[in-house]
Amino acid sequence: MKVLIYSEGKAKHQNIGWHRGGDNIQYYINGLYLLYNEKKHDYSSLTFNYTVEYDDDEVYFANSVPYTYTDLNSYLNIFDKDEKKYKYYFQFIIVLF
């Protein structure tokens, strides 16, 4: 499972946004743990290599594609236009809360 990468330089020069990348990717249990309710919960680590392609570039890394508040509002606005979807959505929210 590759890391998600966003490079300001790559976005500017190649018009590429978030993409998967990195080399020598390793996920492993690192020996640290948390005791919670008398149960041991292991912590894991992620290591990888990445070579920056552009000078003075700003690069961001993520495990999943970032989902903004604007993205959420755009998605929820779909429900305002479709009565059947809105009814389902409203019932779903009531169940969650």
What form results from the Cα inertia axes? Answer: flat
Query: How many helical stretches?
Result: 3
What is the structural class?
alpha+beta
Q: What's the story with the biggest beta sheet?
A: 3 strands, antiparallel
The count of strands amounts to 5
Unreliable parts: 93-97
Strand content: 35-45%
Helix content: 25-40%
- Rg (CA only): 20 Å
Oligomer: single chain
User: How many separate domains?
Assistant: 2
- Taken in chain order, the helices and strands follow as EHEEEEHH
Neighbour order of strands in the largest sheet: 2-1-5
Through-space gap between termini:
33 Å
The overall average pLDDT, rounded, is 84
Secondary-structure topology with pairs:
Layout: E1 3-7, H1 8-14, E2 19-21, E3 23-36, E4 39-49, E5 59-62, H2 69-81, H3 83-96
Antiparallel strand pairs: 1-2, 1-5, 3-4
Helix pairs in contact: 2-3
Task: Describe this structure as you would to a colleague.
The protein is of the alpha+beta class. The chain has 2 domains: 1-65, no CATH class; 67-97. The protein is built from 3 helices and 5 strands. The chain has helices at residues 8-14, 69-81, 83-96, and strands at residues 3-7, 19-21, 23-36, 39-49, 59-62. The strands form 2 sheets. The chain has a 3-stranded antiparallel sheet with strand order 2-1-5. It has a two-stranded antiparallel sheet with strand order 3-4. Strand 3 and strand 4 (39-49) form a beta hairpin. Helix 2 (69-81) crosses helix 3. The longest helix is centred in the last third of the chain and has 14 residues, at 83-96. The radius of gyration is 20 Å and the shape is flat. It starts with a strand and ends with a helix. Residues 93-97 have low confidence and may be disordered.
